[in-house]
Write the structure tokens for this entry.
Amino acid sequence: MSILSKAWNGEHVRKWLECRIEAARLDQAAADKRGYQAQDDYDKAAAEEWVCRSLRMVADKDDQVAFADRIKQLLAQDEYQVTGIHDDRRFERCVRANLRKLAKMTKANEGFENTLRFQ
């Protein structure tokens, strides 16, 4: 019995990225209001927003291979330049974690249907 994999749906990916950008913005605003003790949460949300913004242009092409290649390119970078974060090391760790998560989702072609704010 053969199992057919789902076809790549660029529209789902774009919608998922937009939802994650909006959720990350809300998380950053909430962490900013909480102050010093929430700097970790702010950096995590900023990392997620940065990753989603970096991949948004590639998602417009509706090409799973190009999307996966862009994730690999971003993972290969040594550092990520962003202003306004509190801890560079924590931010880079979170960026890499988000990129690995997206690489798994892209390879399996699943998880992009879940557009809830809290995942």
Remarks:
- The chain has a mean pLDDT of 90.
- DSSP finds four helices and no strands in the chain.
